[in-house]
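Worked problem 6 (solution included).
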Amino acid sequence: MQVIDLNEYAQFKEGERVLKLLHDSPSWRIINFNFDAGAELPVHSHPEESEVLILVLEGEGYFTDGKREIQAKPGSLLISRVSEPHGVKAKTRMRVLVAIAPPI
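Solution. The predicted structure is:
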């Protein structure tokens, strides 16, 4: 069993995104992303057959596929195949938890 206090990873860098790998196993990868206001995870995709889950922990911003933006706020959850374009744009300081299964 592994217990992680996500509050320990609430670190920001002005104008950028900060990431911390929380868990990596053959089953899944979990990453904590902290975005300063205006920072983003550019729209991208991967050729693998995995799925990605992006959960907003705090702050506000958008999930995007490059064509549209969907409002994201605490509790918003995006689930997508990693082969589909996906990205995140922060309107305010924003913390998200990303899980990828199986990991890529």
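Discussion: The mean pLDDT is 96.
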